[in-house]
Structures are given as C-alpha cells and as structure tokens.
Amino acid sequence: MTLSNRDLIELTAWRRKLHQYPEISNEEKMTAKAVVDFLADTRPDKLLTGLGGHGVAAIYDSGKAGPTLMFRSELDALPIQEISGVAHSSLIPGKSHMCGHDGHMAILAALGRQLGRSRPAQGRVVLMFQPAEETGNGAADVVADPHFGEIAANFVFSLHNLPGVPFGQVRLKTGVVNCASRGMRIILEGKTAHSSMPETGISPMLAVSKLLPALPLLGTGTFADDDFGMLTVTHVSMGEAVFGIAPGRAEVWATLRTRRDDRMANLCASAEALAADIAGEHGLSLLYDYQEIFLASVNAAEAVAHLQQALDDEGILHTEDNLPMRASEDFGIFGQGTAASAMFFLGAGEQHPALHNPDYDFPDDLIAIGSKVFMRLVHNLL
C-alpha cells in the first residue's frame, strides 16, 4: 500500500498544525486529542486513551490469530523558543517541536490511514502515541499503566529522525543504540549571613568551586568502551541575586551518562561520595536527588533483522554508522519484557539543523519514507 498525493498533503498539513501548538512533557492533552480526532476516520478496532498520562493507543485487529506489532511515536515538545522562521512556527511562546515528534506522529498517522483501508492479514497492529519522552518518565508510565496488558506486543518498533545523516538513509544496529542517563541535583546547605560579615555564615562557595571541576573527572573510558562514563555539569546556582547577603545554599546540576545500566550505578555512587567528601570538608549539609532517568536503549537482534529486511525490500540504504549515540531515549523500556524492540534512525539531511536547536523543523518528506518502512514490516510479519 502507498500513500496518495492527497494523503501526503493532508498529513503534512496536520503535522504543521501540531507544530504550531506544541505541548511539553506530561502536558500533552490537546495533542492527544488531535491524534484521536485524526485517527477517527481510520476506524480503529479499539482506542485507549490516558495511558501513562496522555498516551493514546489505536488498535487495528485482523480478527485472526497472529503476532501483535506495536509502533511507537512521541507526543511531547520541548521548552525551547523557536527561531526557524517557517510559516508554521510555534504559536506557543517558549515551547516548540524541536525534536521532530510532530513528524513522528504524522508517520504513525500515515500508517493508521493505511491500516484503516486494509487491516493486517493476521494478528494486530498497535499505534502507540507515548507521552513524556523528553523527561524519561513517559514509556515507564505507559508500561506501568493497568491497561498496558491490553496492547502487549511481540515486537515493538520506532524511529527517530537524525540530522547529520544523508536524507532518507537509515542508521540501525543490534545492541545499545542510546546511552543511559540521568540528571543529578546536588544541594549544599550552609548558613546565610550579611555580606558585611560573611564569617558569621557558612558559604558553599569554596565547595562549589571544588565540585565543578571534580565532577567531570569522574568520567571514564572512551565512548567506544563498554565502561564509558560521562558527567556533564549543566547548571549552578548559589545564594540570592542580591548584594547584601552572603550565600548559604547552592545547587549543582549534572547529567550522568553511561553505555550500560550497571555502570550507571557505579557512576552515581562515585558522584555521591565526591559530593559528600567536599560538603563535609566545608561544614555543609548535603542532599541529592535524581530526575529524568533514562535506561540504556538496546535493540533486540530479532527485531533488527526484521527491520533490515524491510529496509532492503524498500531499497533504503542502511548502515551502523553514527551508532550508538550518546543521547538518551526511553524507548528501550518497551523491550524489557517479552517483546523484542528496535529503533532505527532516519536521516534528516547532513546540513539539517540539529535536534533541540531552536531553528530545527522536521522535514515533511520523511513522512512517506518512515511510514513505508513501517507498512513493509506489517506486510512482512503479518
């Protein structure tokens, strides 16, 4: 099955409307409604909403025994002010689809349109529109949802557009494709004082000055090494923005990144021990917590083999170049149960603005390519 020119025009228009009205992680209520409304004409056999927050799952059932295939896209945008200048730029100040999730939704919607015209020969297809990928809680919340068992799949597939890769080419490999990561917030508490008498307080200034260069040194190995660990300081704050108060509190934020989940535990322990030593040395109390937790995303060999066959059938060039990536992705959670999962990366162009850059916009011509690969998987497996 192929999309008509009219399909592509309508899908492109819908993608651009999504682009104009972005919603960030855990706030995707109207985006989810837009998905439900667009899929209405495809008459899914079952539609689940509110999965793990605002997640939507559309089920297309052949009525015959067979495997269940799930295809996943994301709903959320980013807290970034867009400067792309395109006619369909975000109309919501400080929010924008700078990762291309609007395009990923359009690709799944294209698949839904095709399935609405012709159900799979056997088994089921589930289109999973997942919330909150950017904060790392979305996939976990969907899998933990009591209704997730209704869409349990044998295979789960996804894609992500990738600037820097020639347009329409694919990057795909078995094993780790995205790093594990998490945000660590270190809070140092002392005692504030009048700035004329700083000796009466306990300032975190010297502790922060030691912590900032020491944290990145906890990283180990090169990225090619399975024991790779990386720590990046992302934010620092200390005291109030006034001249009359000597600070008594500071926060240091850092992102920890590893190729393996078990290596992450060791890196966290090292960062915690370092922070404790420095806080104790300067008479400060220490608190820390972790946010935006992403496990490593690992492609299953069987799922990759099916993707490779689909790409070959469609004549799409694919290599393992550029993989694995340092960036994180929560998709791998779908493959931690009985399902075999795999994500591939679809080239957005070598000179295309990078993901999360304020001038990025999803290339609409990828809608036809991405949906063609997914439809080929349905044809081959069902």
Automatic annotation (TrEMBL):
Keywords: Hydrolase. Residues 182-281 form the Peptidase M20 dimerisation domain. Gene3D superfamilies: 3.30.70.360, Zn peptidases (3.40.630.10). The keyword Metal-binding does not apply. Coiled coil: none annotated. It comes from the Bacteria. InterPro entries: Amidohydrolase (IPR017439), Bact_exopeptidase_dim_dom (IPR036264), Peptidase_M20 (IPR002933), Peptidase_M20_dimer (IPR011650). It holds the Pfam family M20_dimer. PANTHER family: CLAN MH, FAMILY M20, PEPTIDASE T-LIKE METALLOPEPTIDASE, PEPTIDASE M20 FAMILY MEMBER. This is Amidohydrolase. It comes from Aquamicrobium segne.
